[in-house]
Specification:
three-stranded antiparallel beta sheet; alpha+beta; four-stranded antiparallel beta sheet; 11 strands; 258 residues; elongated; 8 helices
């Protein structure tokens, strides 16, 4: 081996450097200024890099959990730059699950998590590309959304077997607005002027279903009308949504505790 390389190895091997985003790493091999091997300890992973990148702190550990303290890119064929749709979707589920600031604004996401498998962007992107409607858009050019609880009502874990990719309209169809509607059952509001309970649901506009003496009667009217409307929407979107989503909508049941 060239004497200059041997001297560089003696000088640099074992030397520690601080990176901008992934903590400290240690040089464990030096072949040239373009081929330096460093070892990260947290988490442990070896990376080959350039010496100038190392001096500037620009070496990256693909297993560092940099997204909401949980997610990591990993090593594989998918990348944030080449798979932007998957990456944006992945960032979104991690934010909704682990960002304290987001959850404080959207308390319905309290207790929501992402399965360990999807902490890796590689695994999440792989799943995305198996989905028929990944990258699909509705008639208005709006991209489909990732949904966690149409296939499994009440589900609080983003995971492969309970998630689906659906149009924005369907994603919002089943929103319960529990945090903003007060103590009334879903689809019910109290009309103080009439001392009655109004039943209604939202389609493309608010649909008034009548006034009732009790909130239970109002809820039953809402339940019947909204379940029928969900089936109607499912029929309109059939062929543009996954068959499992279509079937789940046909079987959807609304409870007074929703």
């Amino acid at each position: 081996m060239h004497k200059k390389i041997l001297n560089k190895q003696k000088e640099l091997i074992g030397k520690e450097f601080e990176t901008k985003s992934c903590g400290k790493c240690l040089i464990i091999d030096y072949r040239s200024h373009r081929e330096v091997t460093v070892l990260f300890h947290e988490p442990m992973f070896a990376v080959v890099c350039r010496m100038d990148h190392l001096r500037n702190g620009l070496v990256y550990n693909p297993y560092a959990r940099l997204t909401e303290g949980v997610g990591y890119i990993g090593v594989g064929k998918y990348s944030p730059s080449n798979d932007k749709e998957a990456y944006t979707m992945w960032q979104g589920i991690l934010m909704r699950s682990y960002s304290e600031r987001y959850v404080s604004k959207k308390p319905t996401y309290k207790g929501v998590t992402v399965c360990d498998e999807w902490h890796s962007f590689q695994n999440f992107a792989e799943w995305c590309y198996t989905q028929k409607y990944f990258k699909a858009e509705d008639n208005n050019g709006r991209p489909y959304h990732l949904d966690k609880d149409i296939l499994c009502k009440g589900n609080k874990v983003y995971q492969p077997n309970s998630c689906s990719i659906v149009p924005q309209y369907i994603n919002s169809l089943l929103v319960t607005s529990k945090g903003s509607r007060g103590n009334n059952p879903i689809g019910v509001s109290y009309r103080k002027l009439d001392s009655k309970y109004e039943a209604y649901y939202n389609a493309d506009k608010r649909v008034h279903l009548g006034l009732f003496n009790t909130e239970v009667e109002a809820f039953q009217a809402y339940k019947k009308a909204k379940e029928a409307y969900i089936k109607e929407v499912a029929g309109k979107w059939r062929g543009k949504i996954d068959d499992k989503v279509y079937q789940a909508l046909l079987e959807w049941k609304i409870e007074i505790t929703d």
